[in-house]
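Changelog entry

Holo records now carry the ligand SMILES as an explicit input line rather than a separate metadata file. Below, a converted record for S-adenosylmethionine, shown in the new format.
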Amino acid sequence: MYNIINRATFMAQSFVSKALSENDTAVDATLGNGNDTLFLSEMVGKGGEVYSFEIQKEAIDKFNELLIEKNINNVKVIHSGHENMDKYLVKKPKAIMFNLGYLPGGLKAIKTEPQTTIIAVKKGLEILRPGGIMTIIAYIGHEGGQHETDVIVDYLKTLSPKEFSIINISYFSTNNNAPILICIEKSCNLNEGK
Ligand SMILES: C[S@@+](CC[C@H](N)C(=O)[O-])C[C@H]1O[C@@H](n2cnc3c(N)ncnc32)[C@H](O)[C@@H]1O
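Structure line, unchanged by the conversion:
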């Protein structure tokens, strides 16, 4: 028996699971310890592909070892910022997950930054397949987190509701570290484009 209202990370996965099917392409924009990548890998199955972006080599090396140990072959771990995602993807993704901020247990100074996050969000929404989902977990209580969230929200407010359905879930909580979850669905009625 699971709670319906859960941690933001589980809620994000729950939304993504509604959009993603076997053989799809998906993006984990912030690999970190790889929890979302493992989830996406399982969702898309052997015929699908997951592209996972991370700027910290140590996190990548550690996760690559896990991929070998678990014999997972459908994940491409990319040592590059998510703002470059369009350069690496061969097929359009059906889901893109962001978990912003710093690596749990890592250096707090190495974190996502508004100027690159917003490029990645814009590119991600452009390449997302119609009917696809983008989730963004943002930590408004962390240093710089409120500004990063404001930059994203200000941009999302400019998007056409005909093209994107957007929700913003925040927790009734006294805990300043509670994140918010933004979930964006690209309309099914749009053309696939390029
Ligand atoms: C909150 S952690 C992600 C947690 C991860 N989802 C997990 O399951 O462990 C955020 C990660 O984003 C990484 N990061 C920071 N800037 C980035 C960028 N421009 N592109 C890709 N990853 C970035 C950080 O190094 C950090 O590991």
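Spot-checked after migration. The chain is about 35% helix and 20% strand. The first strand starts at residue 25 and ends at 28.
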